[in-house]
Amino acid sequence: MAEGASQDLLLAAAFVSDAQYNRNIPFRTSPEAVRLYYLYNHWIMRTVTYFFIFLNLSLAVFEEPAVYPLPFLVTSLIEVLCLLVFFGRLTHFAKVTLRNVFWKDTKNICIMVAILLSLTDLAIYGVLRMYNMRSIRWSRIVRPIFLINFAESRQIRRAFRSIRNTLPEITYVFLLFMFSLLMFSLMALKLFGERNLQTAEGLPYFKNYLEIVFDLYVLVTTANSPDVMMPAFDFSSWYALFFIAFVIVNTYIFMSLFLAVVYNNYKKHLKNEIRKLAYMKHRKMIEAFNLLKEEEGAQFVVREARWKQLVKLVAPDISNSHRELLLCISDNEQKGFIDKKSFVQLADLLNIQVITLKIRSHPLGQWMPRVYKSAVSRFLRSMVRHRGFVWTYDVIILINAIFIALDEETPYISYAEWVFLALYIIEILLKVYTYEPRAFFGKNQFWNWFDTLIIFAALTATVLNTTLKSTTKYNSQQILDIVFILRVLRLIRIVDSIQRFRVIMNTLINIVPTMLTFGGLTLVVYCVFAIIGMELFHGKIQFFPASSNVPYALECGNPALKDSLFARGKYCKNNFNNFASSFIVLMELTVVNQWHVFANGFANVTVQPAKLYFIAFHIVMVIIIVNIFVSFILEAFFVEYSLEKSEVETAIEQKIQELGMGVQEDELQHEQLLDNMESAEHDLEGEGGTKPQSKGLVFKIASKPTSSPLFCLGPSVHACLH
Amino acid sequence: MAEGASQDLLLAAAFVSDAQYNRNIPFRTSPEAVRLYYLYNHWIMRTVTYFFIFLNLSLAVFEEPAVYPLPFLVTSLIEVLCLLVFFGRLTHFAKVTLRNVFWKDTKNICIMVAILLSLTDLAIYGVLRMYNMRSIRWSRIVRPIFLINFAESRQIRRAFRSIRNTLPEITYVFLLFMFSLLMFSLMALKLFGERNLQTAEGLPYFKNYLEIVFDLYVLVTTANSPDVMMPAFDFSSWYALFFIAFVIVNTYIFMSLFLAVVYNNYKKHLKNEIRKLAYMKHRKMIEAFNLLKEEEGAQFVVREARWKQLVKLVAPDISNSHRELLLCISDNEQKGFIDKKSFVQLADLLNIQVITLKIRSHPLGQWMPRVYKSAVSRFLRSMVRHRGFVWTYDVIILINAIFIALDEETPYISYAEWVFLALYIIEILLKVYTYEPRAFFGKNQFWNWFDTLIIFAALTATVLNTTLKSTTKYNSQQILDIVFILRVLRLIRIVDSIQRFRVIMNTLINIVPTMLTFGGLTLVVYCVFAIIGMELFHGKIQFFPASSNVPYALECGNPALKDSLFARGKYCKNNFNNFASSFIVLMELTVVNQWHVFANGFANVTVQPAKLYFIAFHIVMVIIIVNIFVSFILEAFFVEYSLEKSEVETAIEQKIQELGMGVQEDELQHEQLLDNMESAEHDLEGEGGTKPQSKGLVFKIASKPTSSPLFCLGPSVHACLH
């Protein structure tokens, strides 16, 4: 099909898919450039780029200080390979886009500079290494630039833009907050400085201004909450008022203020972006229309045949009936052509996931009709469809939970595990037997997929574990751990039985993809801080197992930590000695609690200003990024709660309703849907197939599982769908 | 004026002021009832009620276990007095309102039941006490009911209603969260239970299911963040993944979800309340209109004279010119009467704080014109008005900050303090000399008031301290502390010099009144929990000064705390031995950090289920009330940011603009305003008083200091204002 397509059609398809995926690449219009552009956007090319970006980032695991050391030659060769791939991708992009656009775009310049810097640094480091001179691989902190700046990671770039726009506003609030902090510190110095009080560790209390500022900053994060107050409180109860005032002003009011500022800017920025995107999308669709338009009476239109070719090019994998539905909606009056206004909607129409479920009879019913339709089989199926079936399995899950909690050394209980596994497998088999397998494993049947995967993974792991045990008499700890986790995960199923929980869970599942953006954002921040942290603190703190008799094993191998809270808390394994450890430390710092113990510990083994590293991380990660994350969750939930459908979704639904039947207009649950499908078929069987409905179609808008009605297209739709 | 007012007018005024203050009391319409109603709403009656509510609450300070012990007879007499006052207030209310409305209102029933319960409990306790039997004063926890249920504390009731409406939704999320917690605990039991690991304190690690649930619940609050993970992490780095997954799911996602649910409900509820209030207000205004209306042509109207009488009754303390302005707005075309539509607006018009500033010459200029207008005086005044004057004082404040930070044992520095005090006093005197004193100390000149109060308090305290020192050779610590705090507070002034900070500060100051609602809410929750806490934990933990040689002084007098984190952290003074201590403990629990140490400590000295008390407090205070507080701050800031003015505010502004002159339409700063007023007067002097503007009026809408334009009414307004 694509072979026969004209150049215009190809170009128009490129515009439409740009609009559909909100891309904004001003590509050249030559035949070769359009073909290159298709190649550039091909999913394989993109996956390869992502692979090399993550390979490049994960090099830090293998470079010194390494989790799994590889020779310098190997890592540097891989790095050069990655840089070559990035350069290739950039060159490819340069061929696709217009020259002046390419050179104006800062992200391309950024990538080139990053490649150059990395190569230079690699060369210098390599040469110095040959002469046995140690230098710093400073270019490693530019690696996240590739993750941010490649066109594929639009979401992460948008999040960074959002942060940049929030910065000025947040800076003012931050300065005011710092002012308040400095004022309170001054008061604390005056009030407590000359009392000669001591902390619980016997150190002087509130003597040094800078230390007071740090302690009170930590109090804002609540990490040293009652401890910092106790000496003053023990001296006089009235001094508690000072700390209460401090916490109210700084922790409650200022921290909420940060959230308010971040959330407000996030919303404002989101609105602007959406407005810009809508404009861009509209422009692209108009360009596509202009390429395909033909004159029809007084107006320009796109004829049905060209429109179909276009849709096939843009979305080759949607079903025929789905395409017909889209045509029905675009060509409302079945005039054989599509006008400009309807054409422009196409990008949005394509974006709405309409699931085409074909009502078809069970394959077993076709292969072995006599057996499948026998009385026993019917009874079995009606049993599975009964509410009681779900309840029975809920009870089984609860009993299973109790068995898991019990000790499993007793043989009965380990046998019980096999019984439960068998019961779960029977459940899945029964369901597949009753419902149509393709519907049961449909694209949006999240819970069915989840169940099946968990149970078969558990089966595999249990069998593997038993085999290992009987052959080598040895329990593999890793496999056993996985078995335990899978066993407990099976219990999650019970949530799906309760309607209210299901709604919340579905909302959570819906926001997972966007949450990944924050994963990316966090990854970038963590990478940069981990690399800096390794340079600053590498090897300063070491972990020795309890049995070790190395000197200062309890002080993490560093006498400077003697009697420190860090050593007393047994935090030695929290160090920056390799990339993985650094990530875990940064995670603990993100959680905030005890971060001052870390800051003091690492400052003790290096220099006092090292605390600035921890303060900087707190500001960037907790004050900015976590607040953006919270804003994002808030916004996502408000949107889910408001249940408003987009205009286009409403249009499609209306059309489906107009065309279809009113029967299934009300909201139905998935299982009910499957039920209904089955019983419709069932009725059909009973009535001897008088209605031509056995090949009926069910459309379903997939974007909002909790609120989307289901539509069943009956006979009337066939008029439109031919 | 009120004497001569007819019954109709009085009744209408009652309706209007009900609408103005959003009261919703269906009062009787008999002359006596209306008079009683006025008395009921009189500010003295309300203040008295509040006084007795707080007196009743503060009884807990004097009752056993007491901060300041009073004999049982005294406290019980005070309590009976309070209850009598409450009963009197209720009876008063019953006389004002309709009988069937009174008995239908749950809050009246609540108050009566609370009074009865308190009296019964008091009687039983008193009798048992006579026979030397100890019993529990359980009725003390009903005391906050008076704070919630008296009609005056509408805001607190609204907040409680909002919480009640949020509960069902939050319960579902909470159950799902608990399910997730139980699942993770089960996994933790299976993964770590049989490893025989030990915590940093040498206790068994993750052995008991209920303890795991508690530890992981604490981890959700991040209070035991790295500690709970360290033993497993030391055993194998991979186990960190379990805790990372746990924190992401429970701390980040579920806790944000709680905020989202609370905020969403808060907003929804707020919208409903506002809609209801608007409807109620409209109805009341129509009732008032119907009482006063007279026929005028085809429509019913209220005549100007009656309208004026009404406004004088409703708002006796607004200035004549302000009333004229309102009349101008209501009677737009100066027809001598007000139609229904304009009349209904009155309640909103009255609610907008319009400040009438009269441009008048400086009193000194009138008393000693020759001196005040001399060249030296003029130069002085122009100097004070110069930007440089503000800058000079900013520099002085900075230098002062440095001096405060320095040690003050050296005599020079203590002399410097006198110099700074003198400089600040000179500044205030100069400003009062330059600007008109009544304008300088205007109602909304927050910073001028703040400055003056702080500096005169500091002056008084310093003088007092010096006198004490020179006469008794003894530094009073309390006075010295106050001097220190005042000295530092003076520095806040510098914030006001920077425009951006001023905007943020003004927003903060604006939301203070509503924040007091949360003060009330917190007070209620704290009172209830403090009284329960005292019953549960009273006397179990004792604080001894470091020098004490009581046995187990380091274990807070309780051997059960030996080697516990509670004793090691020296938390002994955090106990429930009296009302004040309980409040401080609850405050520390609200801040969350180390709450598990408290929970474990108090569970060790009593019974393990005592932990439930702490968990319940965490759920009520942190998950619900703090989230409502954050929602409230978010909403308040969004409203401030959106800068949208209400319809009526816009109407007033338009009118002021229409009537006034265009000169001062743009936004001016307070000081600039004062400047302009001064220079206008100045010009006048120079020109020999040709313009009749010296008694001009300046109106200002006070509700939004950052965004409200200032209006100056020139000659043209006098046409309307006569």
From TrEMBL, chains A, B:
<feature type="transmembrane region" description="Helical">
    <location>
        <begin position="109"/>
        <end position="128"/>
    </location>
</feature>
<keyword id="KW-0472">Membrane</keyword>
<feature type="transmembrane region" description="Helical">
    <location>
        <begin position="388"/>
        <end position="406"/>
    </location>
</feature>
<feature type="domain" description="Ion transport">
    <location>
        <begin position="46"/>
        <end position="268"/>
    </location>
</feature>
<keyword id="KW-1133">Transmembrane helix</keyword>
<dbReference type="InterPro" id="IPR027359">
    <property type="entry name" value="Volt_channel_dom_sf"/>
</dbReference>
<feature type="transmembrane region" description="Helical">
    <location>
        <begin position="68"/>
        <end position="88"/>
    </location>
</feature>
<dbReference type="Pfam" id="PF00520">
    <property type="entry name" value="Ion_trans"/>
</dbReference>
<dbReference type="GO" id="GO:0005216">
    <property type="term" value="F:monoatomic ion channel activity"/>
</dbReference>
<feature type="transmembrane region" description="Helical">
    <location>
        <begin position="209"/>
        <end position="226"/>
    </location>
</feature>
<feature type="transmembrane region" description="Helical">
    <location>
        <begin position="43"/>
        <end position="62"/>
    </location>
</feature>
<feature type="transmembrane region" description="Helical">
    <location>
        <begin position="507"/>
        <end position="532"/>
    </location>
</feature>
<dbReference type="InterPro" id="IPR005821">
    <property type="entry name" value="Ion_trans_dom"/>
</dbReference>
<feature type="transmembrane region" description="Helical">
    <location>
        <begin position="446"/>
        <end position="464"/>
    </location>
</feature>
<feature type="transmembrane region" description="Helical">
    <location>
        <begin position="170"/>
        <end position="189"/>
    </location>
</feature>
<protein>
    <recommendedName>
        <fullName>Ion transport domain-containing protein</fullName>
    </recommendedName>
</protein>
<feature type="transmembrane region" description="Helical">
    <location>
        <begin position="612"/>
        <end position="638"/>
    </location>
</feature>
<feature type="transmembrane region" description="Helical">
    <location>
        <begin position="238"/>
        <end position="266"/>
    </location>
</feature>
<dbReference type="GO" id="GO:0016020">
    <property type="term" value="C:membrane"/>
</dbReference>
<feature type="transmembrane region" description="Helical">
    <location>
        <begin position="412"/>
        <end position="434"/>
    </location>
</feature>
<feature type="domain" description="Ion transport">
    <location>
        <begin position="389"/>
        <end position="642"/>
    </location>
</feature>
<keyword id="KW-0812">Transmembrane</keyword>
